[in-house]
Amino acid sequence: MSRLVAAIVRLYNFFRYDIWKITELELSRTRRFVYRLFKTIILATRGFIQDDLNIKASALTYSILLAIIPLFALIIAIGKGFGVEKLIENSLQDTFIGQDDMTDIVMGFIERYLQTSQHGLFIGIGLFILFWSVMSFFRKVEKSFNSIWQVKKSRTFIRQFTTYFSGVLIIPLLIVFSSGLSIYVSAALKQSFVYEVLSPLLRFGVKFIPYIINWIVFTIMYIVIPNTKVRLHNALTAGIIAGTAYQLFQMIYIDSQVYLSRYNVVYGSFAAIPLLLLWLQISCLIVLLGAEISYVSQNILNFEYEIDTKNISTRYKNFLTLFITYVIVKRFEEQKPALTSGQIAAKYKLPIRIVTMLISELVDVSILIESYNENTKVKTYLPAFDINYLTVNMLFTRLEMQGSEMFLSNKHELLDSFWERTLILNQRFENQSREILVKDI
Known about the structure:
two-stranded antiparallel sheet, 73% helix
C-alpha cells in the first residue's frame, strides 16, 4: 500500500513540477510528442477552469439567440443569390436545429424577417439591423477568442466587417459543397462497376464527408477569429478535435430526440426551447474548448519552468531584465533587425514565459516600445528612446518606481522619516552606476 501511495505521489510531482522543467530540446521525437500531449491535456483542462469557458459559452448562447434569426436570414439570402436556398434551408434544418417543432418556427421567423427587410419604407433600417446584429454577434465571438489567446487589442471595425462577412459568404458554399458532394459521389459510384466491391468503404467515405467539412470550418475559425497569428498546424489540431466532437454531439443530440418523447408530452412544443438552449450551450463549449486547445498547443513552450518563473528571486529577475534590455539595445546599435520575444527566448535558451513577462514590464515603464506589424501580426521590440541616455540606474529606477508610492505619507512620523533615510541610502548606491550605459556593459 505504501508503495502505491509513493508511486502516486511521484506521478503527481512529475506532472505538477518535473514535466515543466524538461525542455523539448532534451527529448527524442517520440517522447516530445508524448510530453506535448500530456502538457496539452493538463493546460487545456486548467484553461477550461481558469478562463471560465462555461460562463463564456453561456454568454455566447445568449448572443446567438439574439443573432440566430438575422444570421440564418443572411445565409439564406446569400443562398438565394446562388439559387440554392432550398438546399441551404434543408441543411440548416438537419444540422443546426435538429428538432422539427423548433425548425418550423425558426424558418417562419426567417422568412418574415427577409420579407420585412426587402419591402416597405424601412428597407434600409431592416438591412442595417440585420448587418448590425450579425456584426455584434461576431464581435462577441472574437472577444471570447481574444480572451483565451490573451490578446487585448481587437481588429478595427473595417477589418471586422470584411473578415466576418467574407466568412458568411463562404458558409453557403461549404453547405452546398458538403451536401452536393455527398449526393454526386453516391450517384456517380452507383453507376460504376466497382460499386458492389467497394460499397461498404464508399458508404463510410460519404458519411465521413461532414467530419472533413467540420474540420475545415473549425480550423478556419481558429485561424481567422483571434486577432493574433495562429499557426496552421495548431489550428488544424484543434479543428480536428473540436470538429469531431461537434459532429458526434450532433449525432447524439439528434438521435436522443427519440428518447425525449416523455419530455415533449409534458411540455409540448415548448420543450424545443430548453433543448435548443442545451444544444447551443454545448456547441459553444466545444468551439471555445477547441480555441483553448489551439492556444495551448501553440504556446506550450510558454509554460516551461512555470513554477520557477513564479518563484524567481529579485536578484535573478533583475539580472535577466538587464540582459534582455542589453540584447535589444545592442541589436539596435548594430542596426540589426528587431527580435520578437520568441526569438530572444530561442536564441539565448531562456523560458519564453519569463522573457514575455519581463519585456512587458519594460514596455510598461517606457524602456522599450512594441512594434506591431498589422499584416504579419508579429510584435518586435526596440529601445523607447536614445540608447546613449539609457543608463543602468535609469532602467532600475523606472522599474522600482512603477506603481503607487507615498499613499501612507503623514500617517506616522517614524514612517516618514525612515522613508527619507531610505531614499538617501538608495541614492548612494545609484551614484555608483549612474553613468554606466546599458550598451557599454
